[in-house]
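User: Quick sanity check before I run a bigger batch. Here is a single chain. Can you write out its predicted 3D structure?
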Amino acid sequence: GSFNQFSFDNKFFFTTYNDSTYVYDSDNCKKLSQMDGNFKQYSPDGNYVFTNEDDTTYVYNSSNWLKIAQLNGDFKQYSYDSKNIFITTGDYTYLYDSSDWSKIAQLNGDFKQYSPDGKYILSVATNNEITYIYDSFNLKYITQLIGADFEYSLDSRYVLNFNFISIVGSTEKASVYRANDWVKIGTISGNAFEFSPNSKYIFSAFVDYNGVTSYVYDINNCKPLIKMTDTYIETIDKYILSSYNDQTYVVYIDN
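Assistant: Done. Predicted structure follows.
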């Protein structure tokens, strides 16, 4: 089968083959156990193994390789404090207590990630193109953003929320939010978006059959600062590299 990972003490390792997970002794490659489902994760404390099969998550005890729980949905990940696990099915996310595998909460959307500071949970309903924001400590709903794609700035202070469209000539808008209180700063246009390395600006590009138009926006008010025609923007450290008519221009970002 395909190799997945070693145990934390390197005494055994996991492989997956034909919707089954196998455990082998690292010293002699002797098979120790076979579990239902495809390997998903080894728990942070090393006590459990999670596998998935047909929208079902199986939980195995790593001390004897016995199945101890079967949960409806696909395993996503452990919570920030490793006390709970996220399971998703359809457009809902469920939290289970990892001490007894009881269900403790239901959230709208498919779990995507924690905020970088761990304060928020972001889940997405792709059918409705909505991103839901929850408080990660009390699991209370905070707000929802119109768009199923999002990106944090490098300093984690801002979030771009949009729906990615790869069709040439299609126009999309991205909303910019402050990540500490989810206040909307403004909206920018284009069909590709990127934060500058210093998190002061947002680059957007509009691609159609006539070429490319690129913009640089001020992140504080979403006002356009620069417009460049027939050019792609790339960023390296403090500089913008743009190409136009077989020439490359270098622009200092803060000027």
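The chain has a mean pLDDT of 86.

User: Great, the batch can go ahead then.
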